[in-house]
Write a structure and sequence with these properties.
Largest sheet: 7 strands, parallel
CATH class: Alpha Beta
Shape: globular
Order of helices and strands: HEHEHEHEHHEHEHEHH
CATH superfamily: Glycoside hydrolase/deacetylase
Structural class: alpha/beta
């Protein structure tokens, strides 16, 4: 079984065993470590309770990472945010204000500032990361073509602040390490010549000393040791991936899918 908490722990142990250091995204932007470095990132789209389990595994291994929380009820769990921050992990804002504002920039930046202030109750947020908002035609990153991150005390945004020609990017979108092909906006061109499907393959690469020295890894919070949840999430993601692929070519399917997505997050 892949994408379990057990598998995630094995991944972290492989990195630690191979001499990699872990650095919070905000610290990397200010003073990047040399040598083998992993910027571990978690987009807490939902299942915040799983984020807490992953954070505890990291804490036990002496690993730090960055958790990006959304404003939606499936992600915004104050007790979880506080506990994750208390373990030394960083908290960021997983913003989607432009899509929620239906492209109204003034409304979006007001919402962004309000939500950023809210999350700063729990942690001095210094980094943000866009949510893909696949049901919207608006790319949330466009907000920064009109406004400046620094004006809000933000050091950076992964898709705007990192050079992925130099830093290897890997995401578990679609419940597989090669699931990025199903992504709508979480897309980074891979010029490193490495492709993985399973966590086991990633671990083998790390142990063979073939894994890049510097990387950002996005692990969503759908990793679970609960068998029923694991089966349900795998089935759901398989269905979603196929629907998203069909929706790119079929307007009727796209409209129906977008409607269901909006309904789910309400």
């Amino acid at each position: 079984m892949d994408h379990t908490i057990k598998a995630y722990k094995a991944l972290l142990q492989a990195f630690v065993g191979a001499g990699y250091q872990f650095q919070k995204f905000e610290d990397y932007l200010v003073s990047p470590l040399a040598g083998k470095v992993v910027i571990m990132r978690h987009d807490v789209d939902e299942k915040a309770e799983n984020a807490l389990k992953m954070a505890k595994v990291e804490y036990d291994l002496g690993v730090v990472s960055t958790y990006f929380f959304r404003i939606v009820k499936q992600s915004d769990k104050p007790d979880v945010i506080r506990e994750i921050a208390s373990m030394g992990h960083a908290v960021g804002y997983h913003y989607e204000d432009l899509s929620l504002a239906e492209g109204d920039f003034e409304k979006a930046i007001e919402s962004f500032e309000r939500n950023l202030t809210y999350f700063r109750q729990y942690y001095p947020v210094k980094v943000v990361c866009m949510h893909g908002s696949t049901s919207s035609k608006f790319d949330n990153r466009l907000l920064w073509e009109r406004y400046n991150l620094s004006d809000y005390g933000i050091l950076g945004e992964p898709y705007l602040s990192l050079n992925f020609d130099e830093i290897f990017y890997m995401t578990d979108t679609g419940y597989a390490w090669d699931g990025g092909k199903y992504a709508i906006r979480d897309v980074v061109v891979n010029n490193h010549g490495l492709h993985f499907h399973s966590t086991k393959q990633v671990v083998e690469c790390i142990k063979s000393e073939s894994f890049p020295k510097q990387s950002m890894i996005l692990a969503h919070t759908l990793w679970s040791d609960n068998l029923l949840q694991w089966v349900w999430l795998h089935a759901r993601e398989l269905l979603r991936n196929n629907v998203k692929r069909t929706a790119r070519k079929n307007g009727i399917v796209a409209k129906a899918y977008n409607g269901l997505v909006k309904l789910y997050w309400k």
